[in-house]
């Protein structure tokens, strides 16, 4: 943790000032320490350079496993790629000049895939995650001067209202117990005039068979699913067979990325999370409206087959 992060943090319970003590520093990073609330005396540990505002990963343990196993797969900087940057552009509609010198909240940082992009664009980004994916994210990008990473619950964040210039949550809110509530909980942390971009799974018939399989896969041990989801690697070639391949893909959907590691990762990601809600774009649009947003935009790329909803709005 960098000392500069402290000016943004408050106690998540009472929103009062936190005091840093018992710190052990290495270079410019606080590796170990204690954050204590001056008001309610709640104590939060800094462990392995990450402030921990939760003691457990609750319902997201599969993501703790996933992102520490696949920590490097989607990182542009580790793969000489621009895939994640291109994905971020079309899912949010933002360009580098929109975020430069702004304070950005990444809600569900994972292994740091998009925070990497935002920090390279010149923004200061604070990434939060309930899972222990934060450890992978820190190893990937945590040493950058403009990147801060903390483990926290989006339903109880350690920030004051209207802290952030912009926020985004890509593929995260639908993995909480209540997608709409998760959306509404984070809105207060955005400044008036700031923009919020989300990517949420779309509801539709295309999920029929995968949802049936998920009734089984979500009950299996995570490590077993890690190996079983590797079936996506050879199925890629079967799914390319005319007619038969389309039927096979419909009955047993798996990721179809050309890169075998992406296929494995995305298939594991689809079949293991405890929560995986799907919504319609009018639902999400109404959330933005009800939360006081204007200039709400549904990106054309996000409408393809309604399998994904990519939307952004400006808070008024």
Description:
The longest helix has 12 residues. The chain has 3 domains: 52 residues, no CATH class; 188 residues, Rossmann fold; 61 residues, no CATH class. 34% of the residues lie in helices and 24% in strands. The chain is α/β, with parallel strands linked by helices and 316 residues long. A 7-stranded mixed sheet has the order 7-6-5-8-9-11-10, with helices on both faces. Strands 1-2-3-4 form a 4-stranded antiparallel sheet.
In short:
Helix content is 34%, strand content 24%. The chain is of the alpha/beta class and 316 residues long.
Name the strands of the widest sheet in spatial order.
Answer: 7-6-5-8-9-11-10
What class, by secondary structure content? alpha/beta
Order of helices and strands: EEEEHHHHEHEHEEHEHHHHHHEE
CATH class assignment of the largest domain: Alpha Beta
Rg, nearest Å: 20 Å
> Strand fraction band?
15-25%
Q: How many structural domains does the protein architecture include?
A: 3
End-to-end distance, in Å?
32 Å
CATH superfamily of the largest domain: Vaccinia Virus protein VP39
Task: Compute the number of strand runs.
Answer: 11
Question: What overall geometry do the principal axes of the alpha carbons give?
Answer: globular
């Amino acid at each position: 943790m960098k000392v500069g992060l402290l000016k943004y943090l408050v106690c998540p319970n009472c929103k009062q000032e936190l005091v840093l003590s018992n710190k052990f520093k290495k270079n410019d990073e606080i590796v170990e320490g204690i954050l204590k609330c001056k008001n309610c005396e709640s104590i939060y540990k800094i462990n392995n350079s990450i402030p921990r505002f939760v003691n457990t990963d609750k319902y997201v343990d599969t993501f703790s496993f996933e992102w520490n196993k696949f920590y490097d797969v989607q990182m542009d900087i580790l793969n000489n790629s621009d895939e994640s940057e291109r994905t971020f552009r079309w899912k949010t509609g933002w360009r580098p000049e929109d975020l430069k010198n702004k304070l950005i909240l990444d809600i569900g940082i994972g292994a740091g895939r998009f925070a990497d992009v935002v920090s390279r664009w010149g923004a200061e980004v604070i990434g939060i995650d309930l899972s222990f994916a934060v450890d992978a994210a820190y190893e990937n990008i945590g040493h950058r001067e403009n990147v801060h990473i903390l483990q926290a619950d989006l339903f109880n964040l350690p920030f004051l209202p209207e802290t952030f210039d912009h926020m985004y949550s890509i593929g995260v809110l639908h993995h909480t117990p209540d997608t709409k509530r998760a959306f509404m909980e984070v809105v207060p942390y955005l400044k008036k005039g700031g923009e919020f971009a989300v990517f949420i799974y779309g509801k539709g018939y295309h999920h029929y068979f995968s949802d049936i399989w998920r009734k089984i896969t979500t009950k299996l041990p995570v490590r077993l699913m890690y190996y079983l989801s590797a079936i996506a690697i050879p199925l890629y070639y079967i799914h390319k067979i005319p007619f038969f391949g389309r039927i096979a893909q419909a009955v047993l959907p798996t990721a179809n990325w050309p890169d075998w590691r992406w296929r494995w990762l995305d298939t594991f990601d689809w079949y293991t999370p405890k929560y995986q809600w799907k919504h319609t774009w009018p639902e999400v649009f109404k959330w933005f409206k009800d939360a006081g947003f204007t200039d709400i935009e549904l990106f054309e790329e996000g409408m393809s087959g309604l399998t994904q909803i990519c939307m952004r709005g400006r808070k008024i």
